[in-house]
Amino acid sequence: MEAVSESSQFSYYKHGVTKNIDTANVIFVLVSDIGVGEMEQVMIQYDTRDEIPTVQLERVVKSALDDQWKRLDFGKMIDQVIPFLPFEHQHIVEIIALKLRQLDENYRGKYWHRLWIEDNIADYMSRLDSVHYKVRSAVVNGKVKSSKVFAKYGARDVETGPIQLLKSKLLRYLRPFNPDAEIRISQDVDTKEISIVSCAKEEAKQKKRTKSKQRSHTAADIDDEFVSIGCVTKWSGRFE
Questions:
Q1: Which of 1-10, 51-60, 61-70, 132-141 has the lowest mean pLDDT?
Q2: CA–CA distance, 201 with 139 (Å, rounded to integer)
Q3: InterPro entries per the record (predicted)?
């Protein structure tokens, strides 16, 4: 078996300096879901992620790995654990906002000139039923001390849920597509309904014939062009 790279190394940026670590003899094991419950119990004891001691997170994840691989005795071979913390609601909002920007960029010049999406749309979409959450609580002496909301399946249902729902609306109701159109997605403050509005140029020409006073033998046709913008609501309603 040949090495992936002759000069395998891991680079990271810290305090303005790029550091390189030789990884020629390192094996990276990527696992999913193991230790998530244990990390959540640690996280709900602190107000912010920055307050959580890294050592404490590493300890609970390492313990979960040891329990999971107890029969294989594989946990003893793991020298270092890097916890990937579970997503909370605000992280799902950020991911959806990123996906919306990508949606705009991926179809520019094909379905629209630009897709304008209000900032609050990402938060609205993060609360749809297609995105699942779970509540974890810390119980001390029989009483709930604190609670936090975590994304039940991480970001896995973002693409198949709210993003796919919006994309289907756009591809259905924007036909025929106009690559020069400006598409705006907004939400009514009172009704909470979503609107998809398409704005594009409507060219109208008004011809005005004038006679040249300087040259009596010819007449000039001067076309004065006027450009107007027309906006049409393609769809409005609630995402179901």
A1: 1-10
A2: 61
A3: Torsin
Residues 182-235 have pLDDT tens digits of 999 999 999 999 999 999 997 654 444 444 444 444 444 444 556 688 999 999
Let me know how long the chain is: 240
pLDDT value of residue 203:
61
pLDDT of residue 208: 42
Q: Structure tokens of 193?
A: 């309904």
pLDDT band at 77; cut points 50, 70, 90: confident
Give the start-to-end residue ranges of the domains of the chain: 9-77, 89-237
Sign of the dihedral defined by the CA atoms of residues 7, 10, 13, 17, in that order:
negative
What are 139's two structure tokens?
Answer: 């119980």
One-character DSSP codes across the chain: ---S-TT-EEEEEETTEEEEEE-TT------SSTTHHHHHHHHTTSSSGGGS-HHHHHHHHHHHHHHHTTTTT-GGG-------PPPBHHHHHHHHHHHHHHHHHHTBTTTBSEEEE-THHHHHHHTSTTS-EEEEEEEETTEEEEEEEEETTTTHHHIIIIIHHHHHHHHHHSPSP-TT-EEEEEE-TTT--EEEEEEEEEEEEEEEEEE-SS-TT-EEEEEEEEEEEEEEEEEEE---
- Give the type of residue at 131: V
